[in-house]
Write the structure tokens for this entry.
Amino acid sequence: MTLAETFARRREASLDLIQGLDAEDMVVQSMEDASPAKWHLAHTTWFFEQFVLKRFDPEYTEFDPHFNFLFNSYYNSIGERHPRPERGMLSRPSLQRVLEYREAVNASVLERLDRGFAREHGVTGTITVGLHHEMQHQELLLTDILHALSLNPMVPAMVEQPSAIPTFSTGEQRFLPFDEGLFSIGATDKGFAFDCEGPRHQAFLRAFSLARRPVTNQEWLEFIEDGGYTEPTLWLSDGWARCQQEGWSAPLYWQQIDGDWVQFSHYGCQPVESDRAVSHISYFEADAFARWAGARLPTEQEWEVVARQHAIEGNFMENKHWLPQAAQASGIQQLYGDVWEWTASPYMAYPGFRPAPGAVGEYNGKFMSGQYVLRGGSCVTPIEQMRPSYRNFFYPHQRWQFTGLRLAKDS
Amino acid sequence: MTLAETFARRREASLDLIQGLDAEDMVVQSMEDASPAKWHLAHTTWFFEQFVLKRFDPEYTEFDPHFNFLFNSYYNSIGERHPRPERGMLSRPSLQRVLEYREAVNASVLERLDRGFAREHGVTGTITVGLHHEMQHQELLLTDILHALSLNPMVPAMVEQPSAIPTFSTGEQRFLPFDEGLFSIGATDKGFAFDCEGPRHQAFLRAFSLARRPVTNQEWLEFIEDGGYTEPTLWLSDGWARCQQEGWSAPLYWQQIDGDWVQFSHYGCQPVESDRAVSHISYFEADAFARWAGARLPTEQEWEVVARQHAIEGNFMENKHWLPQAAQASGIQQLYGDVWEWTASPYMAYPGFRPAPGAVGEYNGKFMSGQYVLRGGSCVTPIEQMRPSYRNFFYPHQRWQFTGLRLAKDS
Amino acid sequence: MTLAETFARRREASLDLIQGLDAEDMVVQSMEDASPAKWHLAHTTWFFEQFVLKRFDPEYTEFDPHFNFLFNSYYNSIGERHPRPERGMLSRPSLQRVLEYREAVNASVLERLDRGFAREHGVTGTITVGLHHEMQHQELLLTDILHALSLNPMVPAMVEQPSAIPTFSTGEQRFLPFDEGLFSIGATDKGFAFDCEGPRHQAFLRAFSLARRPVTNQEWLEFIEDGGYTEPTLWLSDGWARCQQEGWSAPLYWQQIDGDWVQFSHYGCQPVESDRAVSHISYFEADAFARWAGARLPTEQEWEVVARQHAIEGNFMENKHWLPQAAQASGIQQLYGDVWEWTASPYMAYPGFRPAPGAVGEYNGKFMSGQYVLRGGSCVTPIEQMRPSYRNFFYPHQRWQFTGLRLAKDS
Amino acid sequence: MTLAETFARRREASLDLIQGLDAEDMVVQSMEDASPAKWHLAHTTWFFEQFVLKRFDPEYTEFDPHFNFLFNSYYNSIGERHPRPERGMLSRPSLQRVLEYREAVNASVLERLDRGFAREHGVTGTITVGLHHEMQHQELLLTDILHALSLNPMVPAMVEQPSAIPTFSTGEQRFLPFDEGLFSIGATDKGFAFDCEGPRHQAFLRAFSLARRPVTNQEWLEFIEDGGYTEPTLWLSDGWARCQQEGWSAPLYWQQIDGDWVQFSHYGCQPVESDRAVSHISYFEADAFARWAGARLPTEQEWEVVARQHAIEGNFMENKHWLPQAAQASGIQQLYGDVWEWTASPYMAYPGFRPAPGAVGEYNGKFMSGQYVLRGGSCVTPIEQMRPSYRNFFYPHQRWQFTGLRLAKDS
């Protein structure tokens, strides 16, 4: 596929996601961590306008001079930005105008690609970054709108649940052993990777064992029933403080109605099904669960050396089943898709890491404090975004992503 | 005019106000004090559904069972309510659905009025309260959307400024003397009044004098230039704390651009014109200004005994000039319309006050602490809402209404 | 008694109060509203040093140049001040040094009084203000230390309870009628009064009736048991919000242990005795109680016209019984002493009020917003501070003073 | 030295530290992160009472039943605790009583050690933990009181500066190279170590180079003058937010007076001397400085493999020079003492880590999120506490410890 084709297809995919939404839904910012759907559509467009069109084509006329201020997210070097917590104030530009912005920028990019602009200005790499950035925001758009709708007492479904999804019965949990050794970690030179996935380097790992599938809703219920949320010695100190402060007693979006557990989803309220992988838990909860289970979270290196031996398959965004599924077979399962897996690894620079120069380089390095690495992607991650070296990161208290866990043990 | 005609006309007036707005604009809640425009349209409708249709007609079928929870504002006795700070999360019900709600409830009320429902059930009074309540929310809708748009860096105009508004040159300020005496204060039996405007009672007033017109922008600029915002001895203790904390240095919506003062309005940014009455100031600012000017704010009783000698005329909402005008003639001016006038009077019960029984009685009495009375109405107040005894009330730090001041002196 | 004698005696009285306290107790600031005991001792001394010695005697040498910054409380015109919430950081100057400061300033003042300084410089009035200010801080010292000790899990008693205090049985509540009329309100020219107690002016009062004694603990328990703290329609809107936010379910310092109510006091934990006047309630609670009881709070004018017909007697600080007593006889009781009585009157300027010029004038006028007037003094008020026109004021949510209520009714 | 002798000597060392302090100084809690000096003295005593006396001797009579509640710091498994932010409310127990508590517990422990209690009950290890815990609190006592005194506008010196401290001129900075390899990291079996220092494990390190001495005040001034505190691209995202929010523009305790930089210290305000190691900087500042300098922070593993080749010597608490000194010679300097060195390593479990069982095991593992490792000890660390494997940890925004940095580079 040509770069232009990839560009067109990937940009189009963003619009597929808003089929179930009104313009009004797309204004709402439900918390500082989330952004309005309309903002995601505009911000991803701004990326191409800023880093491709404006930077390399002096002839290009800015679509709207306000938009650089409004839709820059965190690039301090590009100038003043609209404050993040006020994104929900942006009733204007209207959705209609943002869609026009997308079309205009798409046309400008495609027209230039047609006449060899990418090669001429060496922006193939930047466009590729932009498309991976777009995929990240596709996932965020879906998780942010889920959070916004979850606050509506009318419990609206964003879309209808796809019919005929088979539910499988997940077999017993098992731990698979892996030997100690000196391993190469991080992205290889083949294919796209963000700067933080490299440089490739050696790390010594002790022998360990890894669970063959993520923790299920059923197992999480056992944790709840055994008092997992009320026993401080299971928790990290910061985790327990957060648990108390926010009154956690189950995963985000879970609610017990007349004794039955239900879960808010893109399909409205759905029963909590036993065999699905648990999701919408924080690092703090994952860590407490692991301690309760006599296990621990894997490090990101452990996860990576196992996962790279497996094909990238699973329940991803394109599947349109936006609830984690149950493991469907024996052997190691669901390394990719369904739920992001919290690792025990703080998000930090790999040995020898240097951020990419220029504003694009603000992208990853500046977030390297206070967050934890998650691996493998979720049911709302675009599949093309996934690779064994991909490092996602969130703060340990955050729960609005499709975040779950897989256990590990020293062996 | 029949009650039905008044009902139809007054309800229609709310829809006139949203001509310049998109559905998206009407979702936004810009602060806890304000509500989304869509919410105002629904809440005023809920009043009639709750207190007229549901209360008196067992046959009536609720439009949507969610709406009682969502659109009750502060009536604790009617049951649980949606939390006020989360009104901006309500992307749904859509504007379309809220407009259907209005139409359905209007039709239900009108159809019942047609067949003598008001007389039969004695609800004429309640409907009248509901229409005055609607007028209050018409004003709030306009001031709340102004605040929301003011936070948008694109500085959008909600509507185009009406052309050909003459600007007058305001003459000198003068103070008119009034004698001491025992006066009757509060609403008479003629015409509608809220419970808090009575009972009519006697109050002894010392001799005083009252400024012939409100303070102007030009006078406010002199206060600014003389250091009014930086001299603590001019301020109440709580006022100075608030001034420091929020960084006040001019009225809300004022901004100095390249040396020139401009003011955000429904017409976008407009120059601060010298002779217009100043607006968007807090009680704390009004009080500091009065002290600086060697004067004081009038009490609400002083205002009332003067104002009731004058006809209710002025620049009101219907005029569609939503910026305070300049005083246009000699003699006492602008008692009504243009700007609400802060008085020195805390909002409290008149001697002998009893709240109306039932939930409607929660309406006024429960707010009788911490607020100050304002009198006379503003350029976005419906004229039919105004009368000499009308008591508006806000907290002393609030600034998003069209609030100004008129000076008084002991004489 | 000469001014010098009064000065010496009144200043000495402050030191009587700290008999039960260690230097360590006197460092603690338990909340922003309260100050450390040591700070009270220093601040009242600063008043005399600043407004008498430094202002009128160029020969006077400041005791310590740091103290003007540290012990100025709210006089913005005297220069920068140490931030109020950080008073608990002042381990230094030590108590020892503060006592030396008191002695030095006392000696300087007395020595000057001896040689006619007061007459010569016209500072008799300022010294008198300073002594009334000292009395106010004597009460605050006692209520602030009570609050600080109440936070100590060891439940320490500050002093031993005086033995042999007779407990009386309070008779039935009754309401005494008073006629309407035009009354003179405010301080007369005789004797000392703060500026806010004047000017004397006329006010028209409707007929009303006033309870013969304050509300008792027993009556408050009935309010609790009848759900007074859980029924929102009894409360002001701001009061209900505060009640929820702070989790009020009884007066401050009350606690139920094994079914029995106890009350923290200067004597440690004591049983809540039925017939004592209830204390440590906010305005919001007083107002809710009155509504529950089918009554209302009196205005400050109503209280004053009744109280000025009675002698100033009662249970005051000097009595050293620092718990409100029970009404001991028939007829109107306890207008003075025992508990401050919340009135329905916001603290505002009387007609014609002008603050005293100069920094001392910052004293009262600047607090005239958001607070309510209390009348009559409490069991920890120095008796000489009391007079019928005395206006105390607190915010409606504050509870750490000995605040109670007396009911009134329209009649 | 016998265990009893070590116990007596180490416990005595805590009392040496409070020579310059009044009882009043020891009440103050200046922020939630800090504790009153009195509390440190009591809490370290509580450790021995709780984990040695009460746990192993049924005959032992608790000194005061309140103290378990008051002086437990974070052991959730030992029962309810007094809330940390309220430690400054504890005017009682008095210092006198706390000193009696220390004496009584010391005597009880020593008397039991005398008769073979340690061997009999196997508590030698627990007592050793308790003494290392005591050393940690000795350092905290000194840094917490420094913070408390720093808030006093009188700028008090806690103690007099020892005379005749030679100041050396630090030579040029240089980076020393170290080879890549597989290294053993963590505590060996010899001597005491906290659980988090093990298990000893292998880690692969790339070649790197390490600065021969910490960054100096002079170098930090260059960072300031070059705009280090105003250039967001130098900072981590969370760091920049914190810098803005708290208004950082220099290390904590630095102040510019009439153009000269001074630094608050245990000796009052002292000039910022060029060649001393910079201290009182956060991780965020250290990280920004390193980026500005074209370098990075070392990992804790890098630091450890270098430091274990050097003797543990330097400027420690016992030296009584409680300001970092200047590097005094060529070669690698100041690895130990003077300033804690921030490393790039988040504080996390070593491979194979298991917390010690029982309440003592709550001690380290539960803090393994959100903090960074510091190495080497400071000028207020007891020298016996130091070893190459010692891992201190603080949150990246914290600045009140003697924290500095040493640069590293990839090589």
